[in-house]
Amino acid sequence: MPNPNAYILTQMTWPEVEQALPTVKIAIIPLGAHEQHGPHMVESCDAVLAEEMGKRLTEKLYPEAVMTPTINMGVSPHHLHFPGTISLDPTTLIAILRDMMKSLKQHGIGQFLILNSHGGNQSTLGVAVDILTRELDVRIYYAKTTASAKDVMDRRIESKLYGHSCDREVSEAMYLAPHLVRPDKLEAADYQEGRWKKLRPGNPLQGFYYYEEMTRNGCIGDATKASAEIGKEIVETALERLAKAVQEVL
Amino acid sequence: MPNPNAYILTQMTWPEVEQALPTVKIAIIPLGAHEQHGPHMVESCDAVLAEEMGKRLTEKLYPEAVMTPTINMGVSPHHLHFPGTISLDPTTLIAILRDMMKSLKQHGIGQFLILNSHGGNQSTLGVAVDILTRELDVRIYYAKTTASAKDVMDRRIESKLYGHSCDREVSEAMYLAPHLVRPDKLEAADYQEGRWKKLRPGNPLQGFYYYEEMTRNGCIGDATKASAEIGKEIVETALERLAKAVQEVL
Amino acid sequence: MPNPNAYILTQMTWPEVEQALPTVKIAIIPLGAHEQHGPHMVESCDAVLAEEMGKRLTEKLYPEAVMTPTINMGVSPHHLHFPGTISLDPTTLIAILRDMMKSLKQHGIGQFLILNSHGGNQSTLGVAVDILTRELDVRIYYAKTTASAKDVMDRRIESKLYGHSCDREVSEAMYLAPHLVRPDKLEAADYQEGRWKKLRPGNPLQGFYYYEEMTRNGCIGDATKASAEIGKEIVETALERLAKAVQEVL
Amino acid sequence: MPNPNAYILTQMTWPEVEQALPTVKIAIIPLGAHEQHGPHMVESCDAVLAEEMGKRLTEKLYPEAVMTPTINMGVSPHHLHFPGTISLDPTTLIAILRDMMKSLKQHGIGQFLILNSHGGNQSTLGVAVDILTRELDVRIYYAKTTASAKDVMDRRIESKLYGHSCDREVSEAMYLAPHLVRPDKLEAADYQEGRWKKLRPGNPLQGFYYYEEMTRNGCIGDATKASAEIGKEIVETALERLAKAVQEVL
Amino acid sequence: MPNPNAYILTQMTWPEVEQALPTVKIAIIPLGAHEQHGPHMVESCDAVLAEEMGKRLTEKLYPEAVMTPTINMGVSPHHLHFPGTISLDPTTLIAILRDMMKSLKQHGIGQFLILNSHGGNQSTLGVAVDILTRELDVRIYYAKTTASAKDVMDRRIESKLYGHSCDREVSEAMYLAPHLVRPDKLEAADYQEGRWKKLRPGNPLQGFYYYEEMTRNGCIGDATKASAEIGKEIVETALERLAKAVQEVL
Amino acid sequence: MPNPNAYILTQMTWPEVEQALPTVKIAIIPLGAHEQHGPHMVESCDAVLAEEMGKRLTEKLYPEAVMTPTINMGVSPHHLHFPGTISLDPTTLIAILRDMMKSLKQHGIGQFLILNSHGGNQSTLGVAVDILTRELDVRIYYAKTTASAKDVMDRRIESKLYGHSCDREVSEAMYLAPHLVRPDKLEAADYQEGRWKKLRPGNPLQGFYYYEEMTRNGCIGDATKASAEIGKEIVETALERLAKAVQEVL
């Protein structure tokens, strides 16, 4: 198992980075959010999960990858009415990514994978990739942390709706970072009637709605059905597929 | 059938707009692109299809909707290596949308549907909605013009890959605006091997690639299998579903 | 007469553009507005007139010119208090022009003529030219669509003030695009007293005023005196002079 | 004659400003440039002339006006190939004007006259007025310093072309600020053949050209025919007309 | 000792934040950097130290303060030539701070302390405070993490120059986060001759120079003289003074 | 003594600039402010002092330096509640500096000294230097006009607090530009109790406060103790040191 001093930039000195660079082809940028996750998960959930996934993925890609500092806030306007949520403007997130890639390109790294745990960041990443690929002359990939294990989710998750502080996410946290979970507070979604039902994926329209229009407690799905074991299957499947996918495009 | 002077803003005088406004709840903003569509479709294809769909949808929503001028260029960096393509920066498209909604809000319209025919605009729309909903205090929806008829597409389109100057799009054009098509030039995709296969929807990674990495002639699918009849079924199904979906959220 | 497929980008496929490019020296960019034009003209008036002029001028310049998509909204803050007007911020219009020229420069076109039908865009064009010429290393020209026929206007137009939904503009529309005009609604200006008289060209001061400070019905001049024949003389004179002027600087 | 401490902000203490404000209705903002003016005028010419005109005009408007600091650089890309020229980007000039008006509005001043001596700033002022009037909710006027005396110029200036370091401008400087002129270096324009002739006002096309494309020594007209007496007639006529025009709109 | 779930936002659920807010008067924003720290400290040094100081200070201010997520990259252009350094543009850092404060203001928090461990961020903070205080109508304070213990530093640190990966910083890390230090790699600065000597604080001029112009190994001072005990005295003194200072202005 | 026509750009023609450039290594950019200076100094104080210092310093550096136009407004939000103050946004000041340096770089000048008389500009200069050095590939220095004579100030100034319209600044003005001072209005500071005492340099916290929170009359220190003789010692000492410092880094 490689030493973290050899692939996690936050834990490396500059001579260690210098030594690592000759084999490095890609930098993994973990991206999360700081937003409400219901009564049973802490608000840094996405940031921590992205970082934990990032560490494991980068280790698998050693010595061809390094991991950058985690972007620990994201685009979360939908959650701003719940106490504590902090949301970056999409242009701010793009500016952060630009500065990171520009700096790392100077060190000789020309490929990037943004490893994103928060759905609310996806559109911004689509835009960032369109803008920055050409502006900086780099190759940029992005991935939802565990989306590649969708088949596992569909098999293991009972809730019809999942995706935020739900059976899936709590399971992942139980496996990757159990301190994110308040096991004594686990709750299923407390759904509201409303416009949101017409705007979920698969409907003719998409659009902005606040999360409290959908769920009173800020969760969806049913976190009481989460388990570390489910989390493990999702996470390990995703990691394996991500590692393979990255190796294929490098 | 309502008179276009009663719901298409480009064809109305200001007293006609004034007369229409009291019942108007939503403005439909057609959004297209100006980009290569292979040897058998002209470059304004997306702009014209969005406008044609916009007209029909707005008519169905009369007297609760008006249609704005069409945004006739979009975010098309992937196509820039094909002659003639013009691409807006995502920030430019957001600026156009901001100015349009800000102007129309002053006239009393507070809900918007961006009716988009070009996949490359979708991420930018996601970002635009996140930014502008809160900045302008409006409600914004967006929809791909015919995506709600996905079941019809899956039934009627034989090609495994479709979405750009393909069986589906040429069919839609044959029905809605046949002058967009060069019937004597219809071709199937001329695919290339390459990285793009690893980046299509459903793969673990997403990322930017140029269209010529995927297809030499700029098409996908097989346009030779297109027909106005297929187009009609897709278009009319989508229009019916879109109209219903809009009515439900108004 | 050349085939539109050979010089109007919106009506061309990419192989047709590729074939046209070797002789093309300049791109014509029609620029209009979406704004109130009184009770007798529809709001797309400027956009349509610019496009019609653009087609005719580009045809005259064949095979040295191509016409781009029309920019169908412009800088119209003065008209925002009339129902339906949509105004772009000047910075948005500059962004659109930047993106268009940047895209077309990549296809090998380094000279541009912005053919503008709306007075309210002129200052923005002056600024755009100052910024973009040096930023993009291109040559940019701009022209009011029919301003070069000022002598004809002065001879044929009786109204002292003209320039917006007036004898001149309605005449041009009657010749170029009669569907823009509501012949049964033609009215002369309904002027107001006020500050605007001190701010018309020729006065010591210039400044911003809203159009309704000047005219209750949103017109100036006297549209009842318009005719397609006057329009024809203005338009054809201007086209001839514009074509000659472009040829002299190419 | 009022004391400059009562209307020139740069020469006032804050209690003096406080005392002046109750009668003040408008702030005069002198705007110049820093650019080459041929071999016989120094590069601050426009800034100094604007300031001198500003002082005299503000005095005439006492106690209804105050004069702000002079904006001593402007938009001069056309002159950048001559040694010493400094050019502001148009967006920078607009930012300066925004900050000035925003600050002064807080002190209770809601009307502004930008008194501009440099033709290259005019488009930017047109744009600034369109943007800032609505953004800041103020009234903004602008004027070329002596343009209102055009009839005098046409009578007294022999050169066909004038406008930059010419008979007119040198005359104005001889009267207002003789230290700007090198009397032993006076020269007529040293014109070049070229594209510029097709782009002067009155031609069908407008566009950007560098000043050295037009004149080798950076002047136009014939400065050897300048005189303080001509300058006096132009300046005093313009001042009288400007003062009257301002009083009429206040 | 208060529970971290009661004042560290990253470790709180939204109901916990909701419960904390009624007594909260200020949010502490830790700000660091990701930059080279010589051969004996890892590149996240500043981010980790800021976070550690933030935790301790927020605890002391309980229940009047909460701590936000740490901004783990900063303005580090001077270090960009050392492998691994990532630098944010100052405008990016200001954008992050704007978004954070705007979000938190919506939750009812109107005072902020940016607790900054990196000298290179100070100018940007000065600007951020000037801009954001008025724009967001909030009160903003900022402090270098341990600068208030300058007397202790002057007494305990032998090196004439200190401030970056030096006796002082390594001592602080040994006390607060020993994993940041490579004890077997401790080195004194390897100074270069050069321009930098003329640009250190106290000289007539200030200016930009790259860190490698000053020191070959990226350190200043003499880290071999660092100790956890020195670190403790600096840190605890600073924390006490910071807590008192915050309480006095709340 | 060199002729001002040989080193002060505002007083030079372009052929004079052309003649000067071969020996010029640096441009001196005087930077001031337009802000209240209590009842005994006019609001242009900082702009005039910076320009006067600039002239003298540039003369000393002849023929290696030229002086640019003075930036006569600065970043003064703290003073905006006193009548007359005009404040530039920090981003505006950076834009001005960018445009100036970009223009001058084209004339062959690659080093700059921003000679700043106003403390409120210092943070913005720190940021400007970080951004523009790399963006424009130039060397940038900045200095407070007389800060290098701090030892003289400490010896000659009796007031404990000084820095704005105080013994020191009035003394400098009495020596450099006596017309800035109202000798019959000289007053000592009229201090207020308040939060500012906790935010002065040397305290643990820094932060934004309005000047009227500190002093009712807008001054600090005791201007009644100012003299031209003190001013002379400060100014001449600083000029000598600045000239030497610049020569050492050229």
TrEMBL record, chains A, B, C, D, E, F:
GO molecular function: hydrolase activity, acting on carbon-nitrogen (but not peptide) bonds, in linear amides; metal ion binding
Protein name stated in the entry: Creatinine amidohydrolase
Organism in which the protein naturally occurs: Paenibacillus rigui
Keywords: Hydrolase, Metal-binding, Zinc
BP GO terms, sorted: riboflavin biosynthetic process
InterPro entries for this protein: Creatininase-like_sf, Creatininase/forma_Hydrolase
Protein family membership: Belongs to the creatininase superfamily.
Cofactor: Zn(2+)
PANTHER family associated with the record: 2-AMINO-5-FORMYLAMINO-6-RIBOSYLAMINOPYRIMIDIN-4(3H)-ONE 5'-MONOPHOSPHATE DEFORMYLASE, 3-DEHYDRO-SCYLLO-INOSOSE HYDROLASE
Transmembrane intervals: none
Top-level taxon: Bacteria
